[in-house]
Amino acid sequence: MSRAKRATQNGPVFITDRGKPAYVLLRFEDYQRLTKQRRNIAHVLAMPGAADIEFEPARAIIKTRQAD
Question: What pTM, to 2 d.p., does this model score?
Answer without folding.
Answer: 0.47
